[in-house]
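Service request form, structural biology core

Requester: graduate student, group of Dr. S.
Request type: structure prediction, single chain
Budget code: on file
Notes: please return the result as structure tokens.

Sequence provided:
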Amino acid sequence: MTRFAAPGFTGSLLIRVDHERNNPAWFDEQASKLSARLMRLDGLIPRAEEDGTLSWGSLAEAPPEVELALLGLIDDKPRFVALTDTREDPSHRSFAVNVVLNQLQPAEAATYAVGRGLVDWHSRHRFCARCGRATRAHLSGWARLCDREQGGCGTEHFPRTDPVVIMLAEHGDHVLVGRQHSWPARRFSALAGFLEVGESIEEAVARELNEEAGVVTQAVRYICSQPWPFPSQLMIACIASVASKEIVLDGNELEGALWVDRGEVAAALREDADATFLAPPPFAIAHSLLSRWAEGA
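Core staff response, request fulfilled:
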């Protein structure tokens, strides 16, 4: 059996200790430990050490009056993140973030994704969606509470993950890759789109492929998944066999599309100078999807 590399942002060493999240005394105990560590972030950008690990500091580095979230334990040490109020566009992956992600070990990038996701979610959910009152961190930072003691309605709010299908249309020994207008020159990737209300994964794959490229799906097979912290998505990677290679592009969504074979995909993944296209970065699940298809998945 072929052993495939794990998708990016998976494999964190965090032990999440979710059974203790509703225990304020345990939270305070962990925060009081000299071994407690704080993830160092510049806004939403992680700091990295030379060995490809995340940079951690003491809890004394957290800004005054800023709430903390307990991510979990690594090597029996409590790991926290400061829930700062960031004004960054959470969907934007800056050049600075890409540089650090290319330095981080895979498990470290996965831990960063947890911290970044919580910081971003808390920053965008300071007020109750039901009654509009200010909320506070709850359940060790894994929720927010509209506190009745402060005049609120008592609603608990939890971080949400938005499901996204990302897929290769397959016909014979070729798959379809597309590019968006804003991407670097020659960059092509798998097509993708959000699941809509009342839609299955298979239905979303078929709809998105038809809307963006005009192809008709015959069957869908699941490959793998990945949390994507830009800002809070679960990428569901699939391959869909389609009826023909005839395509009709949605020019608003895609600038272009190519049918490529396994040799062309392998050359792009190797970053060959004469490759037909530029592959997505290794931490993107599209890279994993192309790799697995090239190897016969």
